Structure formats: C-alpha cells, structure tokens
Amino acid sequence: MVRIFPVNELQAAASLSAHAELPAFAIEQCEKHGCDAHVIVVRDSVLVARASLWWSRAPAMSGERPGIVGYFAAVDEAAAKELLEAACNELKHRGCSICVGPMDGNTWRRYRLVTERGSEPTFFLEPDNPDEWPGFFEAANFAPLATYFSAMNSDLTVEDPRVARATERLETDGVGLRPLQSEDFVEELRRIYTVSRTAFQENFLYSPIEEAEFLAQYEPIRAHVVPELVILAEQAGEPVGFVFSIPDLAQAKRGERVDTVILKTVAVMPGRRCAGLGNVLVSRCQQAARTLGFRRVIHALMHESNNSLNLSARYAKSFRRYILYARKLPG
C-alpha cells in the first residue's frame, strides 16, 4: 500500500513501524528542509520504503520543471518501484516534467548514489548507500542525469607547473592567501558563504540556501577542522576564493592512522581577476597537508564536467563514481 502525506501531516508517517533493514530517519528533517510531501510504502503494516518530495522549491533546470525525490530508502526492488512510481505520478500531478533523485531537496544536502565503489573504504562525510539502490532506480525507468567521481592523490610532492606563474600574477594583483582563523570560525564561514553563493550559482541544479542553514551544516564538524587545511583567498580585504579540507576521520573510526585529507570544496569568484586561483588553492592545500604529515588527499565528489575536474586531473586518480538519476514525466 502506498500513502502520500502532505507536509502538514508528516508526523503521522513517523508513527509507523519500520522494517529493520530500513535506515533510521527523522521526519523532522523533511519539515525543516521544506519538502512538500512524504511518500511511503507499507507491507503487512510495516514501512518498507519512503521518500520525500519537493516541487514548489525545487532547483532550477533549463527547459524543465523538476520535481525532486529525496530521503529515499527501500528494502527491496519491488518496494522501491512502487514508491518511485507513486512519486513520479504525484510530481506529474503537480505539474513537474521530470523527476530527479535521490536528492534531499537541493545539492547543498545529500544527493546522488554510489554506483562504482572501488577498493577504497568510505571516507568522512561521504554519502553512502546500499549497493542495490542504483538498480532500484534503474528498474523504475530512471536514467543517469549527472555523473560524479572522487579521486585520490597519493603523491603530495607533485606540483602543477602552472601554479608558480598563477601565484605570481595573483600576488601582483593583490590576492593573498591565509589559513582559516579558528577563533573567528563563524565569521570565517560567513566569508566562505559569500564566495559559495556566487561561485556556485551557475552549477548544475544550483539553488541558494540561507546563511543560517549553511552555517548549521558546518557546526557539527567544527571541532575537527584543521585551520591550515582551510585556506581563504582575499583581495582588498574581500573574499574571492577558498578551499575547505578536513582530515579523513573515518580512518580513526576504523582504528587506522589518519593519513588522508579530504578536499571537500574549492570555489573561486567568477571573472578573469581570479583566473588560476583554483589551481593555486588546491596546490596550497596539498602542500599544507604534506607539511602536517598527511600522505594522501581525496578530491571528493566532483561533477565530471565541472572545472574541478581540470584542477585535480594532474594530481589524482579516480577511485569512486556516483550517479544522480532522472525520469522524464509524460506531458
């Protein structure tokens, strides 16, 4: 049985008994993140699949009116197909032309699925999923919409020959680099947010979020941030770029020495004045990691057509792939 709960009835969905294999979920997240509805599949009085839907505040997509499926989970293919069929029908009824997922509302939150796992274990802050889930989407007639990868640099002595020239030109233009000042963590994040909301606005499926939500995303990892691994670029006192990296704390959970850094985000203000700054920031981050005694850097979760691909191609080798799926909805 499929049930759809409008946003004002989400708490009713939380009262249902869930299958033991269904990942834990707090329905309050849906309310907080402004979903429009929640879809569930119940079998023998037990919840076996769930997802949240967004249509009124979905990210923009050229030539389409997208609807979003997020907070997806299902215990088997049959439950997933029933869930995704109901989701697509609801989104079509709401005027959407395409269903995109899994995405928890927008690309600032968790989205896409691991499709090629490789031999490296899951790294800190990496979204993960059961290996069967991509097949669930494909069985429900979803096809890849966008592909992503993570890559590993295991030789931090490698230098991009373009960096020295770019550094000299940027210094001449008054662009300076400095590490994050941990005593002013919140203000530093506000400077990073200023760059992010401009640098990413042309990215695929971009949608803005409020500063408060951006700050809240980083608060849980505040104690783990190493200032030397977060580098800000400034010109005339204004932020023009940054790179945000953090140690791979998943290694510590596995009882291993933490010898890897995750290069999570690099962003640069658009325009010729910052040309080459992304390469410089990546290089400086890897130098800092090496100085601190780290051995490897993961270039995490990059869109295959993004500029970040060019930034990491000289350094790193792909080891994991991800897919964001979509299904066209009939008119």
Shape type: globular
Counting H and I runs of at least 4 residues, what is the number of helices? 10
CA distance, first residue to last residue: 26 Å
Number of strands: 13
Series of secondary-structure elements, N-terminal to C-terminal: EHHEEEHEEHEHEHHEEHEHEHE
CATH class of the largest domain: Alpha Beta
Oligomer: single chain
Overall mean pLDDT score? Answer: 93
- The proportion of residues in beta strands is 25-35%
Total domain modules: 2
The CATH homologous superfamily of the largest domain is named Gcn5-related N-acetyltransferase (GNAT)
CATH topology of the largest domain: Aminopeptidase
Unreliable residue stretches: none
Estimated helix fraction:
25-40%
How many strands, which pairing sense, and closed or not: the largest β-sheet?
Answer: 13 strands, mixed
Named CATH architecture of the largest domain:
3-Layer(aba) Sandwich
Radius of gyration: 21 Å
Report on the structure:
- This protein is α+β, with helices and mostly antiparallel strands and 331 residues long.
- The protein folds into two domains: 2-111, Aminopeptidase (3-Layer(aba) Sandwich), CATH 3.40.630; 153-322, 3-Layer(aba) Sandwich (Aminopeptidase), CATH 3.40.630.
- The protein has ten helices and 13 strands.
- It has helices at 10-14, 28-32, 77-93, 133-139, 162-172, 185-199, 211-218, 249-253, 277-291, 307-312, and strands at residues 2-6, 37-43, 46-54, 66-74, 98-101, 113-116, 143-153, 175-179, 230-235, 238-247, 260-268, 296-303, 317-328.
- Helix 9 (277-291) links the parallel strand 11 and strand 12.
- Helix 3 crosses helix 4 (133-139), helix 5 (162-172) packs across helix 9 and helix 6 (185-199) packs across helix 7 (211-218).
- It starts with a strand and ends with a strand.
- The model has no long low-confidence stretch (mean pLDDT 93).
